[in-house]
């Protein structure tokens, strides 16, 4: 997967692109549908106000949230995607710094660890996984997240 990363307002204390690439690799190990070399995605590290704007414009929710995911293909399209051909946009992710930072502090973990979790969470959403419609789907998605984070050497966030 080719990841287009844009960073706006996140502190330079962490190599965010490297963290994102490691999160993608971990997500690919637990969700092999993400390994198709044709896939591209964008990841925006930004501020709460920008995520709030996106949330309001696209989801009619006038609040910031930790991560937004905007899939551009269905799960069925992703699973049927042939390995040969031109690039295909999986979708976009946006992470909100202040919300991510506050949640990490509440959990007593580094912001980078929480950001890695949110990137994995968002990628799984782009791949068609969900946690809203049923407890079984939520449990399955949590297991994937826990396993991906373990691959990165990070602890269970739940």
TrEMBL record:
This is Endoribonuclease YbeY. Keywords: Cytoplasm, Endonuclease, Hydrolase, Metal-binding, Nuclease, Ribosome biogenesis, rRNA processing, Zinc. GO terms for cellular component: cytoplasm. GO terms for molecular function: metalloendopeptidase activity; RNA endonuclease activity; zinc ion binding. Zn(2+) binds at residues 121, 125, 131. Binds 1 zinc ion. Its main location: cytoplasm. It is an enzyme of class 3 (hydrolase). Its EC number is 3.1.-.-. Single strand-specific metallo-endoribonuclease involved in late-stage 70S ribosome quality control and in maturation of the 3' terminus of the 16S rRNA. InterPro entries: MetalPrtase_cat_dom_sf_prd, YbeY, YbeY_CS. It is found in: Cytoplasm. GO terms for biological process: rRNA processing. HAMAP family: Endoribonucl_YbeY (MF_00009). Belongs to the endoribonuclease YbeY family. Pfam families: YbeY. Its cofactor is Zn(2+).
């Amino acid at each position: 997967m080719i990841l287009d990363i844009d960073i706006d307002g996140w502190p330079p204390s962490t190599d965010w692109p490297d963290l994102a690439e490691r999160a993608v690799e971990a997500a690919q190990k637990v969700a092999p549908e993400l390994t198709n070399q044709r896939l591209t995605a964008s990841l925006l590290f930004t501020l709460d106000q920008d995520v709030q704007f996106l949330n309001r414009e696209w989801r009619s929710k006038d609040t910031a949230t930790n991560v937004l995911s905007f899939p551009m293909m269905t799960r069925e399209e992703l699973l049927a995607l042939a390995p040969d051909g031109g690039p295909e946009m999986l979708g976009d992710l946006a992470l909100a710094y202040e919300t991510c930072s506050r949640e990490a502090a509440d959990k007593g973990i580094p912001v980078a660890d929480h950001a890695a979790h949110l990137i994995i969470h968002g990628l799984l959403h782009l791949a068609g996984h969900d946690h809203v419609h049923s407890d079984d789907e939520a449990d399955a998605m949590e297991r994937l997240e826990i396993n991906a984070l373990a691959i990165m050497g990070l602890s269970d966030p739940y």
